[in-house]
């Protein structure tokens, strides 16, 4: 086993490749895997493809050859996050909650930073689990119906996700919902160790029953993506023109701080999108000094997950190209709003029935209990 240093957590992190290989060799284990949005646009260059190309089909084909039993796309988990986070936001707005903003909670490095530096803000951090953890709850529940032991692996753009997976909040009877997290770089090493010629692979689709996702979930991998996905959900106008206008509302672009205002009914909402922890602390100081925001998206990595520390090295320009790759993948999806993902309805009527809070939400220390 080798180790790497997590720049966000400043901690030594384990490389779990060998444990994943062991699970794949274990006939009594049923091994599922989910792939985060940002991974698909960062992996190809290593194998000679053009940077920013969407390589999800080849990643799926490679994982299948490596022996994974079920392969899913974290964008599906992001659709759950959009629905839950929008619901939480609307509830706060309708309750006339003056204790705004609502901070997003998808980035574990940000949650960790908030816990350490601004614990008083934890009640303002969304109770939503990250897409990885929401989806892992669903996949693990589904896996319990199998006669084989469910093992779940997540391919993620950062090492912070390893620490998130190991948190007690995401364990059931001491077993984590995500058993192993491997980074994009570790996946590249595993593909090479398998002798798979990545560029020779014919692209394949992810599996059912959790194989439908939307463009809204896909864009989570770049700064502004969560906000844009939530705005698509909040907008009462479901036309293509409205989608276009949301895209030009100021959420896109790799700038570290973006601000926009949107109308929700007759209320004007102030939204901030920050990436990079220095930008985040600057914004928090402004909020503490009295500046009002209703919704704040925070990603610890400048530019969002496309720039994660577990991704292959890239210049700023290449990171921006990865972001464009996600927007282009979004354009190619036929469903662009999370609430239109047909899988969501069956999840809420099935696995999640009566268990939404238990499986999709979390209360971090010092966070307030809410129903
Ligand atoms: Fe991980 Fe960076 Fe994405 Fe946060 S922004 S989830 S640290 S890759």
TrEMBL record:
Q: What GO annotations for molecular function exist for this entry? A: 2 iron, 2 sulfur cluster binding; 4 iron, 4 sulfur cluster binding; ferredoxin hydrogenase activity; iron ion binding; NADH dehydrogenase (ubiquinone) activity
- Report the subcellular localization: Membrane
One GO BP annotation here?
A: ATP synthesis coupled electron transport
* Known cofactor(s): [4Fe-4S] cluster; [2Fe-2S] cluster
Q: Name one GO cellular component term.
A: membrane
Q: Which UniProt keywords apply?
A: 2Fe-2S, 4Fe-4S, Iron, Iron-sulfur, Membrane, Metal-binding, NAD, Repeat, Translocase
Q: Which family does it belong to?
A: Belongs to the complex I 75 kDa subunit family.
Q: What is this protein called?
A: Ferredoxin
The record lists the organism as: Anaerocolumna cellulosilytica
Which section of the whole protein is represented?
Answer: 196 to 566 of 566
